[in-house]
Amino acid sequence: MADPRGFLKTKRKKPEEHAASERVKTWGEFVIEPQESDLRAQASRCMDCGIPFCHQGCPLGNVVPEFNDLVWRGRLPDAVRVLHATNNFPEVTGRVCPAPCEASCVLNIDNVPVTIKDIERTIARSAFDGALDPIVTPRSGRRVAVVGSGPAGLAAAQQLARDGHDVVVYERDDRVGGLLRYGIPDFKMEKGIIDRRMDQMRAEGVTFEVGVDVGVTVTGRELLERFDAVVLCLGARVPRDLPVPGRDLEGVAFAMDFLAQQNARVAGDVVPDARAILAGGKHVVVIGGGDTGSDCVGTSIRQGAASVTQLELMPKPPLVRMPDNPWPAWPLVFRTSSSQEEGCARDFSVMTTAFAGGPSAPRRVAKLVAVRAELSGGSAKPIPGSELEIPCDLALLAMGFTGPEPKGIVAELGLRLDARGNVATDIAGATSAPRVFAAGDASRGQSLVVWAIADGRRVAAGVSRWLARAEGRLRATG
Ligand SMILES: Cc1cc2nc3c(=O)[nH]c(=O)nc-3n(C[C@H](O)[C@H](O)[C@H](O)COP(=O)(O)OP(=O)(O)OC[C@H]3O[C@@H](n4cnc5c(N)ncnc54)[C@H](O)[C@@H]3O)c2cc1C
Ligand code: SF4
């Protein structure tokens, strides 16, 4: 147990960040990593409660009090080992996880949870300062293909390789990482950390093949001929559209197209002018109040937008928990992201009804037309007479995703979908097709990195168990 009286002696303290006015001049991360002594003091606040709710709060079941205790005692190498026992990529979750563990920390009853995410990031940093040794296990002679290299695919691949299987990861994009690479902006997570993990994974027996669109470049059936099992970690990449008048005007774009282009630019690629979606000098309106929308805000500000407005269809959440949303549940309260802090107007209960061009360029968006909305019967309804217009040279649609692409590999293999359009699986990740498994957003729907890693670990365990059983059957019948 960390210091039994630590939480009484030490206040919760978040790391410093570069001022908004400074950090928007660069694409780099802006958290100033704390001194180790500060981290130890923060870790000392963990009470090692009899029932540690943070275990349940964390989808990975990270054993938080154990690593807090080790950090407090200055035993970082042991903390590295404990943390990696449940989490393949703490350097990622330590940056982008919304930390449901902190929401369920007992100290959060008083709104001062242990800074678990920062402690996790520091442990991961200390692992990176070292060798990031590969874990190499005896080979099983089995071959597994993983399709998609987002956090689910990467976690599945690493676990499968550590179970001794030869793993090939196929990725459609030109670089590995899924939304970690093309989606999440560099100011939230610099991409070098993905490359560092890839080096470790290669040494553990994982092969990466990029630019391979499975279903097009190679068929699913071909993969099933070459491999003992196929794991689909395709993500849920079909964006929700806004079919209103003017949707086809120039300057109305999906958020993901905008964000991925900027990731590519930061990586040194040139985006051709004809395709470029840029916010510089424009009045930007982001439609959608979630993570994706927030990332559009920070990216637009860094590109030099004249103004950024973010609209949300749902009402503004309360400032404090409501009685029907008690601890340790995730608090449904008003939040301000680091990007919103950098300077954006926010409006709630706004329903976009049309985009319109200007007199000089009628095919280019110049304004957004909307109406105020109220919740009625669980959905938002327009309030008559409350119409409004917002100047808009660039509208970014960030209203979530409807699920995985139903065509391509999913259609080719005839996979059963669930009621929400995601790939249906059993608890071990097995789909309706023999030897085909699925994990991450493709089977869960658009979610969080931490869930994708957890799903990747779970499906890997499912595949290894299935391969072992199949091997047993072969021996019995052979
Ligand atoms: C803009 C944005 C910001 C986000 N920010 C956060 C955040 O801050 N914190 C957080 O926890 N979560 C965040 N999320 C959610 C998180 O990124 C996802 O839940 C997570 O990446 C899902 O992982 P995945 O591996 O299932 O899928 P993905 O990361 O989507 O990866 C799927 C991969 O499969 C590849 N693929 C698909 N089809 C094929 C095919 N046929 N052949 C070959 N390859 C294929 C795709 O190219 C892609 O690389 C964000 C999401 C978005 C869109
Ligand atoms: S992965 Fe996320 S939920 Fe789990 S301990 Fe880390 S910050 Fe908390």
What does this entry show, briefly?
This protein has helices spanning 6-9, 20-23, 36-43, 53-57, 64-72, 76-84, 90-96, 100-104, 116-129, 151-162, 192-203, 220-226, 255-266, 291-303, 338-341, 409-412, 441-444, 449-477; strands at 143-147, 166-171, 206-210, 229-232, 238-239, 252-254, 283-287, 307-311, 345-347, 350-357, 365-376, 379-391, 394-397, 401-403, 436-438. It is an alpha/beta fold and 478 residues long.
Structure overview:
The chain has 478 residues and is of the alpha/beta class. The chain folds into three domains: 6-129, Alpha-helical ferredoxin (Fumarate Reductase Iron-sulfur Protein, Chain B, domain 2); 143-237 and 402-477, 3-Layer(bba) Sandwich (FAD/NAD(P)-binding domain); 241-399, 3-Layer(bba) Sandwich (FAD/NAD(P)-binding domain). 34% of the residues lie in helices and 17% in strands. The protein has 18 helices and 15 strands. The protein has helices spanning 6-9, 20-23, 36-43, 53-57, 64-72, 76-84, 90-96, 100-104, 116-129, 151-162, 192-203, 220-226, 255-266, 291-303, 338-341, 409-412, 441-444, 449-477, and strands spanning 143-147, 166-171, 206-210, 229-232, 238-239, 252-254, 283-287, 307-311, 345-347, 350-357, 365-376, 379-391, 394-397, 401-403, 436-438. It has a five-stranded parallel sheet, with helices on both faces. Strands 6-13-7-8-9 form a five-stranded parallel sheet. Strands 10-11-12 form a three-stranded antiparallel sheet, with no helix packed on it. α14 links the parallel β7 and β8 (307-311). α6 crosses α9, α7 runs antiparallel to α9 and α10 (151-162) packs parallel to α18. It starts with 5 loop residues before the first helix and ends with a helix.
